[in-house]
Write a structure and sequence with these properties.
By secondary structure, the chain is an alpha/beta fold. The protein has helices at about 1-25, 25-40, 50-70, 75-100, 115-135, 145-170, 185, 260-265, 285-300, 310-320, 340-345, 370-380, and strands at about 200-205, 210-215, 230-240, 270-275, 305, 335-340, 355-360, 360-365. The protein folds into 3 domains: about 1-170, no CATH class; about 200-240, no CATH class; about 260-380, Glutaredoxin (3-Layer(aba) Sandwich). The protein has 12 helices and 8 strands. It has a 5-stranded mixed β-sheet, with helices on both faces. The chain has a 3-stranded antiparallel β-sheet with strand order 2-1-3, with no helix packed on it. Helix 2 (about 25-40) crosses helix 3 and helix 3 (about 50-70) runs antiparallel to helix 6 (about 145-170). The protein is flat and about 70 Å long.
Length: about 375
């Protein structure tokens, strides 16, 4: 039995450490997934706390895994592990059984799992942890108390430091659809051989205080002016698998024209600066960006600001003496495009994030804290002439 306890203890401990490290690579991704759950439950008052919850949950997952491996304070950590896996099982079970959340974000974007796969994984872990909980008195410390504490302290410091680094400098391992060398135009297309969703146009009308739903080919035989239109929607009949990797990415001019295709098809180099929000009027990266813009202008590389806050963006451009061209017709001027905030959150895990594209392909990308590296690259690339 001791050997069985040791093997399960090792499996569960390594799994929690691995799971925590994968999430630590992109804590913002986990916070967005938490926000999705909170939105479904109408817990909007917790939205501002999701990043803190994400960082602490990842920290505990890593530390709990190491505590299990070294066997430190198992009476406490066995309870904590049990509570954690019960919580995870509830989340993945809700996602799977309700169908309202398609993925739980257990391994982030690096190892995507369906809601059913995540739920199955957590059920297996729950059984293993229940076994360890029942035999917790048999789990003896593997190292001395001082060394065990040192291991857990180092794990805590590493977890915080690693998460702080990626929150400032982008994920170490980029598993998002906007990774380097990715073709944005190709990513917006459904996968080859995929099957689209099958939908039917459905109407909802109100008649005598009661809402009646029917499809376009099955109007009620007594349909007349007593039916009051409520809404129209596409009802899903059969779920397909034609979902593209990049969804909801669109560039809109300030006048409301969709210019996504035209901009992405521009040949040569171009720069995209994603700014989700302006937290301060004089950001710390403004000086470095001015140098980047100088190189871009000298090499006829067009610059596009992509933001959900167009007014504040134009104010920043004017305040810093940069050229602005809302029509994007001049390669030496900056064009401002509006984009959905959710799409920007996926494209830029750090606010701001700068993309260097060649055609529709992402050649390089930098967080605001790394704009000094972008200056060096801009100095080396050839002119678009």
């Amino acid at each position: 039995m001791r050997r069985t306890v040791y093997i399960i203890r090792f499996i569960v401990g390594v799994f929690f450490i691995f799971s925590g490290l994968v999430k630590a690579n992109d804590p913002l991704g986990l916070s967005y997934k938490m926000q999705e759950f909170f939105d479904v439950w109408n817990f909007h008052w917790l939205d501002s706390l999701t990043l803190a919850f994400s960082v602490l949950m990842i920290l505990f997952e890593i530390v709990a895994g190491f505590a299990l491996l070294v066997g430190w304070r198992m009476r406490i950590f066995s309870w904590l592990l049990l509570l954690l896996i019960v919580f995870f099982t509830f989340l993945t079970g809700y996602a799977y059984l309700s169908g309202r959340v398609r993925e739980c974000g257990c391994f982030g974007d690096c190892i995507p799992l369906t809601a059913g796969e995540s739920f199955t994984k957590d059920l297996i872990l729950l059984i293993l942890i229940l076994f360890l909980f029942a035999w917790r008195n048999q789990i003896k410390p593997f190292l001395s108390q001082k060394i065990s504490i040192a291991v857990l302290v180092l794990a805590t410091i590493f977890s915080f430091a690693f998460q702080w680094f990626v929150l400032q400098h982008l994920p170490m391992v980029d598993c998002l659809p906007y990774r380097k060398s990715a073709n944005i135009l190709e990513g917006m297309k459904p996968p080859p051989g995929s099957i689209p969703d099958s939908t039917v146009i459905t109407f909802v009308y109100n008649k005598n205080g009661r809402e009646i739903e029917f499809t376009a080919d099955r109007f009620p035989s007594d349909f007349d002016s007593s039916y009051k239109f409520v809404k129209r929607f596409d009802k899903l009949i059969r779920k397909g698998n034609a979902e593209p990797a990049i969804k909801d990415f669109s560039l809109m001019t300030l006048s409301g024209t969709d210019i996504t295709q035209a901009v992405l098809e521009l040949k040569g180099y171009k720069l995209f600066l994603f700014v989700k929000e302006w937290k301060e009027p004089d950001p710390s990266w403004a000086k470095e960006f001015a140098a980047i813009y100088t190189f871009a202008k000298s090499k006829h590389v067009p610059v596009f600001f992509i933001t959900a806050e167009a007014d504040n963006t134009e104010s920043f451009i004017e305040k810093n003496g940069l050229d602005i061209d809302s029509s994007s017709s001049s390669p030496s001027s900056i064009a401002v495009f509006k984009c959905d905030a959710t799409a920007i959150k996926t494209a830029s895990r750090v606010n701001p994030t700068l993309y260097l594209l060649k055609g529709p392909t992402i050649a390089d990308k930098w967080a605001g804290a790394d704009f000094d590296k972008a200056i060096l690259v801009m100095n080396e690339i050839p002119s678009n002439d």
